[in-house]
Design a protein that fits this description.
four-stranded antiparallel sheet, about 40% helix, globular, about 180 residues, 7 helices
């Protein structure tokens, strides 16, 4: 804390790799900035909504306490990440003068009803199907749940082909 160090907590990766449970609640109580990460392929997900839910459930189970809540975890997934990167003056929260990075969610799905607490819904219930529109620096990159900046189907097909060729070269597709 004295040196302004932030911790990137990757709960799904830690669980998958059997690295144990980081003492996140203790670090938060000491005032250390904790953000969330995915660790790429070692966690088998890039879904930050799932990471938030996992972080909340893991630490509530691990310490058998409600000292960590959905609002704290949501901040770990948003503004705390910007603080960790030292860019919280330009992004990480919705404020005049900051980059217009926004996610508009469609809450008209069964997973968000009944609606009682915004943070609880954001951390525990949101799935990719709820993402309607995404703005990055004011430009729409997802609209009506579809990526607008690339040809999604073409990228997926090219990715499948490249992955198959790599697996074949590595000898993993032998008959």
């Amino acid at each position: 804390k004295d040196y302004g160090v932030s911790i990137s907590h990757n709960p799904i990766s830690n669980m998958y790799l059997s690295f144990g449970t980081a003492p996140i609640v203790d670090m938060l109580e000491f005032g250390i900035n904790i953000c969330l990460g995915t660790d790429g392929l070692s966690s088998y997900t890039q879904n930050l909504f799932l990471v938030m839910k996992t972080a909340l459930l893991l630490h509530r189970t691990h310490i058998f306490s409600s000292s960590i809540n959905a609002e704290t975890v949501f901040r770990m997934g948003t503004i705390n990440g910007a603080k960790a990167l030292k860019i919280d003056d330009i992004t990480g929260s919705i404020e005049v003068g900051k980059m217009a990075d926004l996610v508009i969610l469609n809450l008209q799905h069964a997973n968000t009803i009944p609606f009682r607490n915004m943070y609880a819904i954001l951390v525990n219930e949101i799935e990719s199907k709820n993402v309607d529109t995404v703005f990055v620096n004011g430009k729409i990159v997802v609209e009506n749940g579809r990526i607008t900046t690339i040809d999604r189907d073409k990228i997926l097909e090219e990715s499948k082909k490249a992955a198959y060729e790599l697996w074949e070269r590595c000898g993993f597709l032998k008959e």
